[in-house]
Amino acid sequence: MKESKPHKKTGVWLVGGLGSIAVTVMVGALGFRKGLVPSSGMVTESEAFSQIELPDVSEFEFGGWDIRQDTVYAAAQKMVQECRTIDPSLLGKIAPELDEINRWMKPGLTRNCGQAIESLAAGSAPGTRSLLEEVNELRSHLRSFKEEKGLTGLVVINLASTEPSLDLQEHHESIALFEARIAENKACDIRASSLYSYAALLERCPVINFTPSPGTLIPALIDFAGHQGLPVMGNDGKTGETLVKSALAPMFLSRNLEILSWEGFNILGNMDGEILNTSENRATKIKSKDKVLSGILGYQPHSRVHINYVPSLGDQKTAWDFIHFQGFLGAKMSLQFTWQAYDSLLAAPLVLDLVRLAQLAKERGESGVMPHLASFFKAPLGTDCFDHHQQTDMLVQYISQVTSDGGESWE
Amino acid sequence: MKESKPHKKTGVWLVGGLGSIAVTVMVGALGFRKGLVPSSGMVTESEAFSQIELPDVSEFEFGGWDIRQDTVYAAAQKMVQECRTIDPSLLGKIAPELDEINRWMKPGLTRNCGQAIESLAAGSAPGTRSLLEEVNELRSHLRSFKEEKGLTGLVVINLASTEPSLDLQEHHESIALFEARIAENKACDIRASSLYSYAALLERCPVINFTPSPGTLIPALIDFAGHQGLPVMGNDGKTGETLVKSALAPMFLSRNLEILSWEGFNILGNMDGEILNTSENRATKIKSKDKVLSGILGYQPHSRVHINYVPSLGDQKTAWDFIHFQGFLGAKMSLQFTWQAYDSLLAAPLVLDLVRLAQLAKERGESGVMPHLASFFKAPLGTDCFDHHQQTDMLVQYISQVTSDGGESWE
Amino acid sequence: MKESKPHKKTGVWLVGGLGSIAVTVMVGALGFRKGLVPSSGMVTESEAFSQIELPDVSEFEFGGWDIRQDTVYAAAQKMVQECRTIDPSLLGKIAPELDEINRWMKPGLTRNCGQAIESLAAGSAPGTRSLLEEVNELRSHLRSFKEEKGLTGLVVINLASTEPSLDLQEHHESIALFEARIAENKACDIRASSLYSYAALLERCPVINFTPSPGTLIPALIDFAGHQGLPVMGNDGKTGETLVKSALAPMFLSRNLEILSWEGFNILGNMDGEILNTSENRATKIKSKDKVLSGILGYQPHSRVHINYVPSLGDQKTAWDFIHFQGFLGAKMSLQFTWQAYDSLLAAPLVLDLVRLAQLAKERGESGVMPHLASFFKAPLGTDCFDHHQQTDMLVQYISQVTSDGGESWE
Amino acid sequence: MKESKPHKKTGVWLVGGLGSIAVTVMVGALGFRKGLVPSSGMVTESEAFSQIELPDVSEFEFGGWDIRQDTVYAAAQKMVQECRTIDPSLLGKIAPELDEINRWMKPGLTRNCGQAIESLAAGSAPGTRSLLEEVNELRSHLRSFKEEKGLTGLVVINLASTEPSLDLQEHHESIALFEARIAENKACDIRASSLYSYAALLERCPVINFTPSPGTLIPALIDFAGHQGLPVMGNDGKTGETLVKSALAPMFLSRNLEILSWEGFNILGNMDGEILNTSENRATKIKSKDKVLSGILGYQPHSRVHINYVPSLGDQKTAWDFIHFQGFLGAKMSLQFTWQAYDSLLAAPLVLDLVRLAQLAKERGESGVMPHLASFFKAPLGTDCFDHHQQTDMLVQYISQVTSDGGESWE
What we know:
homotetramer
C-alpha cells in the first residue's frame, strides 16, 4: 500500500460494537497502528492492492451501537480469553486507545429482533420512543462522531447477532412506504437492522451488512442507497466453511465430477453459536449458506448445513464437511475436511477491508450494490457468482480499473 | 458434444498398457461406446465443450506397450477386483472388445528404468538389440496399428510406472546428440520412456506424459516435437491430493492468510504404490508435486509430501493433508482434509480428454508444448501457472478460440 | 470352536427378515457353511471361545417376519448392490439356499409402529384380526418351522426398523395386565414388537432385541421370560460409533482427563437412515445412545448424537465424532475420528453370536436377562456397565464359568 | 486423596530439567500448591486413589540436570508461549518459587548422546573429567539437595531428549562389568542416561525412565536397583497417539475384526520433534512404539509410525492414524482419527503420578521393576501387557492391595 495522506481520517461505525468480531476489528486496527501485529488476513494488504491508495487503517476511528452494556476493554479481554491464540500482552499496550472508544459505544435497538437477541439486552426497557425518534437518535450519534473526529468518511457495518428470517412486505420493498411507516410509527416488522441502515444512509454513510440479517439491506434501502449516491454491500461475511466450499466446489465442476452429497456440520461455542441455537435465528443463517453449491454447480446436490452450539469451543469454530462424489464408471469417492479456525479472527480483517473498499467506492462516486466485493460474502448482492475464484477475479479486475483510472480518486 | 463424423477413427497408444490406469481407460471407453457408463469425470464432456467437435471416444482404437505379459481382460479383472466400486458385470459385456486389443499389446522396454521396474518384467531378458533396433521395432508397432485400423490420428500417452529421477546430460538437451547416441548405440542413461517418445514423434504421433518420468519429454524431444510440427504435453497427471492442493492454496492467497506448513501424507496399495516404495522412484514423484505450492503462493511454506505403500488399500488412495495457517493478529488455525479416491478412476477420463485435445491440436496445426492443458498436470510444461482455477481459465479461453476459429478444424 | 454334534439344528427367526442386517446374516451363514467367507467379525469364533461348544452356524436354519413383500434373494441383491465391498459372485453360489428360505418369510405386523414404518407395508391392509388372532398366527409360524425343520432350539431376534418411543403404561409393566389387554383386544399402544416377543416366549424361544424399539422387551415380557425359564437380552446392537465411544471414553477416565464435549454426527443412506429421518423414530435411537457416556464417566459432558439421512451413502455409515477434553493446567485438547463402515456387516456376525449364546444359555437353564452379553448392546439390560472393556471382561468370565462347568451342557 | 502428614517432603529430580515437560511439571505442581490449577490429568487424583495416602504434590521440591543454560522461569515462559492454551497470568503468580529452583538446576552430561543432543549443549566443552568424577558429581548434587531440603524421599525421573538406539554390550548387561568400565574410565558407549541412573541408585533414589532412551534402565542397572532395594520403571511415557492406539486396538480384538493396516503419522514442532528429526534418535522412538499393536492383537498387521518435524506446531502434537480393518464377508472398513494435544501437558501430570507411586513403592519396600505402572508407558518393563484397559486394571488391583495392606505404609 502506498503511503496515504496523513490528515484524512475514516470512521468505522460498528453495529454490534461489543461483539467479538467488532472487538477484534478494533484491537487489530489499534495493534496494527502501533506495529504490534502483522497484516495477515487483510486482503487489501496483499500485493494486488499495492498500486492503489486506500484509507489508512492506522487512521481509523471507531464507534458503534450495542444493546449490551460493557466497556470495550472488558469485551476485548473476554475475546482474548476465548481465543487463547492471541498474545494476551497486546491488550495492555492499547488499553488507553480502547478506553477512548467507550464514549462512542452508543445504545443499540432490539426492535423485532426476536426473543434470543432481546434477552441479551437485559435491563434495557423496550423503550417508549417512536420509530422516528429512534432514527433521529441514531443519526445524531453518527453526526456528532463525524464532526468531533473530523472524519473524511464514515462507514457503517453490521456485525450484530443474526435476526430471525423476514417475510418481505410492501414497506420492505418501497422506500416511500418504509418512510411512511416510520412517520406513522407503525413498527410492523421493521427491524432494528433496517433502522440502523436507514439512519446511516440519511447521514451519507455507506452500509455493509456482514451478517445474514435480512433487515439490513432490504430492497427499499438498497434503492434508497442508489438515490443517495451511496454504495452498499452484503450479505453475510464469508469466513469459514462456506469460504472453503466456494473454493472447492469449482474444482469438482472443472473435472466433471458429480457431487452427490455435501453435508456440513459446524460446531462453535461463542455468543453467535448461542444465538444460532435458537431455531428462528438459525434459519436465517442456513438460508444464506444454502445457495452457494447450486450457484456454483448448476444443480443441487443433497446438501445440508448443520450448526450446533458446543460451549467448550468458545470462538474456535470447527466444521466437518463430507463430500461424496461420483466419477468415472460411476465410482463413488469422498473428500472430507475439518476446518478449525477462529471466526472473529477471520472476520475482523475482512471488515477492515470492506470499510476501505466502501470508502474508496464512495469517493469514486459509485453507488448501489458493489458486486466486485462478492468474494467477501456468502450471499453476495448484485451477482449470481458464488465461485470464490471468479469472485476474486472480479475484485482484481475492479482494482485494475481503479489503477488505470488513476487510483487516487478517493482523496 | 456435437456429433462427430462417423468415419474418423483416433488411435490411443498406451505406454504401460496393462497397468490399472490404461485398463480403466479401455474399459471406460468401451463401456461408454455401449452406453453402459456415464461420462462423469471426463472434462471434455462438460457443458463448456459442447460447441466444439472432438474425436469421438466411441471410435477410439487401443493398443500399447507393456513390459508385463498378461491379457487385457485379466488385467481388467484385477483392476475391478481392487476397485470394488465398479460394477463387476461391466466386464462381461465388453469382453470380446477387450480380447481384440490383446494383439496390439506389444512388449515394452526397461532400459535404464531402475531395479524396481525391471523386476516387473520377469522372464524377459534385457535383450541384445541395439538402441536403433529398439526404436525401429517401436515404430513398426505404431505404423502397422495405424495402417491396419485406418486411423486418422494416433496419440501416444505414457502411463507406465515412474522411472528414477534423471540428471540431464548434453544428449538429453540436444536432439542431434540424442540421435548420435542412438546411432552409436550408447545407452548412457537413455531411458525407455525417451525411446517410446522418440519413436512416436518419428511416426508423427503427439506425445502425452501422464507420468512424472523425466525421460518422456526431455528438452531434446520437446525440441524435436516442434520440428516435427507435433504437439506434446506433460508432466504427471494431476488426479488426487495435488488437485485439491492446487484448488485450495489460491483460497489462502486470496485471503492473505499465510500458510505456515502444508504436510501431505498419501497411502496407497496398488502397483504404483509398490514402485514408489522404492526410494529412487519416489524421489521423482515427490519432486513433481513439490513446485505446486510455491508456484501458487509466491513463497515456500514448510511442506512435505509423504507417499507410503499400504497394500490393503489396493487402488483406493487415501491422502491426509494438514494445513497450518496464520491469520489476523498472528493467530494459527488449521484445515485438514482426507481424500479417499481411486487413482485409476480419476486418471482414466483425463487420459481420454488428453487424447482428444492432443489430436485436436495436431489437426489445428499446433506444435510444441500445450500450456492450455496445464490443469491436467502436476508439473505442467510451458507455464508457471499452478493455480487450478487459472489453469482452468486457460483451457476455457483456448476452447473459445477454437470455437471462434470455426471449431471444426480437426477434420 | 470344537466340532459340534452333527444332528443338532438351531433355528434363527429374524424379525425384519428382509432388511439388510437379516439378509446379511443369512448370506453370511450360508457362505460360511460353504467355506466361502472368513469368520471375521464373529466374536464367538475368537480364540477365547475355542474351549466351549456352541450351536454350529453351518447348521442354522432361517425364517422370519417382514412387513414387506420380496424374495430373500432379491433383498440380498439389493444389499450387495449397496455394499459394493462384498464379492458379488457370492450370491450366485448360495442362490438355492436363499430361495428355500422364502417359504419361511412370513408376513409381519405394523401395530402401533408409527407412520414411517407403516408406509413400508404398502398394500397390506391394517387387518381386522384381533390381537389374540395375531398372536396365535405368529405362534403357528414358529411352531411349524420348528417341527418341519426338526430344530433343537429356535431363537427370535428383532432386527426390524426402529419404532417410535414408548411411554410405559400399566399393561407394559405387568404380564397379567398385558395378557388381559390382549384377551380384551384393546391395542392401547401394544406394539408389533411386543406381540412378536410374546408369541416367541409362549413358544419357548429366547428373544434378543437388536433394535432400540422399546416394545420388544417391556418389563412385562422380561418378567414373563423369567417365568417361562427363558433367557432374553437387548437393547440395540452396538455396532459403530457407540462401539468406538464405549472403547474410548474409559481411556479419558483412566487418565483423569475431563471430557468437555462429545459431539457425534452420523450420516447414512440405507432404509434404517430413512426411517430414522422421521423424528419420532429417531428419538428412540438417540435415547439409547445417550446413556453410554455418563454411564462410563460418572458425569454428563455436553454431548449430542446427530443422525442424518444421506442417500448416496447407502449402507456405508460414516460417523464423525469430535471430543473436546481438558487436561493439565486446564488446557483444552481434542480427538476427532471418522468411522466408515457398513452397518449391516458389523451387525450380522453379532446376530449369529447372540443366537449361539442365547441358545447356550437356554440349554444351561439360565433365564431372564443376560448381562454377560452387555458388550453387544448400546443399552444393555440388567447392568449399569457401559465400558466396552469391562463388558468384554464380563463375557470372558462367563465363558470361563461355562468351561469350568463342563462347557457341553447345551447338548 | 486423604490429607497427608504436613512435614514429609518428597523431592523430584528432573533429568532434562529445562525441557518443556519438566517445566510443565514444576509450573503445574506450584500452581496446584497455590490452588490455581485443577487436578485434571493426574491419575492419582482420580476417585480410585481416594483411599490411599500418597506423597503430597504441594510439598514437592524440585531440582534437576540439564545440558542447556537457562533459568527455570525463562524456560517456563517459552513453554507458555508455545502452548497458547495455558493461562499466561499463571507464571507471574509463581515466579518466586520458580526462581528458587534455579540453584538446583545443575549441569547435565552429553556422553555418547549423539550429535543432535550434543549440539544443544553449545558452549560447554565435552569435559576432561573421568567417568567416576562425573558420577561423583551427580551424586553430590542429589545428596546436597536431599540434605538441604530435608527430604523424606527423592525420585529421579528422566525427561531428557531421546538418545540414539543402543546395541547392548556385556557391560550394559552386568553391573559388575559396568562398574569396572567406570573404574577404568572406559566410556565405550556408556550413555549420559546410564550415569544419571547409576548415581541415583547409589544415592538410594528410585528411577523412572519417561523417555525411550535405552541407556536409562539397561539390564545392569535394573539388576542393581534390585540389589539396592529400589523400585524403577520405564520406558517411554505413553501420552498421545500410542495411548489412543492401546485403548482402541483391544476393541477390534474383542469384535474379531482383523486389522489389516494401522498407519500413524505424527507431526510436532517442539524440541523433541527437532531431535527426532535426526534419524538416529528417531529410530529409538519408533522402536518403542512398535510393539504395542502386535502385543495386543497377537499378530502383526501392516503398521508404520511416522514422526515428522513441523516447526509451526510448537508443542501441539497432531497425529493422524488410519486403521483399515476387515469384517464380516471380508469387507474392508476404516477408522481414522486426528489427535491434537500438547505433549508436555499430557506428560507432566503423569510425571507427578509416577513420582508419587515410585515413592509409595519404595516406602512399601518394593524393589525392581513395577509392572503395575505399565499403563504409563509405551514399552513397559516387566510385562507383556500392552492393552491399556488391562494395564489400568493392574493399577487398580495394586491400589486395592495397598488399601487392604493399610494404605499408610509409606510414612
